[in-house]
Amino acid sequence: MEKQAGLYEKVYDYILEQIFHQKLSYGQKVLEEEISKDLEISRTPIREALRKLESDGLVEILPKRFAQIVTLTEKDIRDLGIVKLQLDFLTAQLAIFHGSNADFKRLEQINDEMHRAVEDKDIYTALKKDMEFHKTYMSISGNPQLMQFQSQIQLKILLYQSIRMRDTEHTMDASVYDHQSIIEALYSREPEQVLSHIIPHLAAFYGLDIDVYSVMVADFMRGRAKVPEEAHRYYAPSKLQEQKGEK
Prior knowledge:
Elements (H helix, E strand, L loop, with lengths): L1 H19 L8 E2 L1 H8 L3 H13 L3 E4 L3 E4 L4 H25 L2 H19 L3 H18 L3 H24 L2 H19 L2 H16 L7 H8 L15 H8 L3
Antiparallel strand pairs: 1-3, 2-3
Helix pairs in contact: 1-3, 4-6, 4-7, 4-9, 5-6, 5-8, 6-7, 8-9
């Protein structure tokens, strides 16, 4: 059973690598026969991996026919971006609260490695480092549930990113620059500064209209997103005392 599970993971990673290397794109068939030959395995773990990829939203399985990579429409991308923006708002606030300067330094190191890959025109490594950057950033939030939600959409982002990079490699340069701006804002511990960099970064990538979020962002900047005083009665007494610095 363990051996079978290992084979399934091997196939899963193999298909992801094909996407990273831009060998699989929108609507392309995932050929079981070729994978079986390349990896020298039976089709059972291949089908298990495909079912997992289907649950991740990367693969569409057509009954009694074949599996293919999904096609993300412009609306799909915008919808994905809207969700990503909201999750990143929360991630940023938690990262500021929980993150240490050492955590932010690690983000800088990963971004530097991504920058070197971009300069070397190594898109494969650049994509991997971009994914590592976001995974590390999410982990700083200290919230496993949030990390799970982020991870569920991260693979779709990878698919879109790998396809977009084929035609617009310069966007990776922009990502490196945006990442560094976000890191510097994290060091400042000022949420509004972090959001002022996150919003245009995501809006440009996903084709979002920033005006849609103007009221929400303005509310946050003015501090209206804070918990009203009357809501404090819902806090556990020990937590409220902790917030007030009482013992």
